[in-house]
Specification:
By secondary structure, the chain is mainly α. 68% of the residues lie in helices and 0% in strands. It is built from 13 helices and no strands. The longest helix has 32 residues.
């Protein structure tokens, strides 16, 4: 009787192992369709907004690195950031809010702020450079301050509404702000900067 029980348990264990091996092969094939070649599978899935894969990989015993949550932050994958945080993952980079701000991921910024993560003046600058006005407004409400380069970056990339908002807050660009706008042919930005005293 005991031998039959052991044999049944062994068959069951092999069936489970085979099922898990098959799941691993299927997930790996799916990852490869998205460009995965080598490296950490959980990290890759996080950067590609695939929470379903992450859950399956973790069930199979895979672990990600800090790059998993940082890739999700950078790419704005809020649900993945939340899931990984619940699993004990933490952002190790100094200012994760900066990454999210530069890429315009407002909801990720709000979540990170709730968790106690910080950013610095580069958060405003990154958001200005890429035209993320709502991010700048939120960061300003939290007390973040950028530097004079915020207007320069916005001028370079033609983000007029960002420049106007920053100017209303008292930001001043450097003397090069208008030069950057001229170099890149940002006509509306040039006109506005001249109207507020840049030459």
């Amino acid at each position: 009787m005991a031998i039959a029980l052991c044999e049944a348990q062994e068959k069951y264990a092999r069936r489970i192992a085979n099922r898990n091996a098959n799941r691993d092969c299927i997930i790996t094939a799916d990852l490869k369709k998205y460009g995965y070649e080598k490296g950490n599978k959980v990290d890759f899935a996080a950067s590609n907004n695939r929470l379903d894969w992450i859950k399956q990989l973790i069930e199979l015993g895979y672990e990600g690195t800090e790059d998993a949550i940082e890739g999700a932050v950078k790419n704005g994958h809020l649900e993945i950031v939340k899931y990984l945080h619940e699993k004990g993952y933490e952002c190790k980079q100094l200012y994760p809010i900066n990454k999210a701000a530069g890429n315009g991921h407002l909801e990720v910024i709000k979540y990170l702020h709730e968790l106690g993560y910080k950013g610095d003046g580069f958060a405003i600058e990154g958001a200005a450079k890429n035209g993320h006005l709502e991010v700048i407004k939120y960061l300003h409400e939290l007390g973040y301050k950028g530097t004079e380069y915020a207007i320069n970056y916005a001028a370079t990339n033609g983000h007029l509404e960002v420049i106007k908002y920053l100017h209303e807050l008292g930001y001043k660009g450097t003397e090069y702000a208008i030069n950057y706008a001229e170099y890149y042919g940002r006509t509306e930005v040039i006109e506005y900067l001249r109207s507020v005293g840049y030459s």
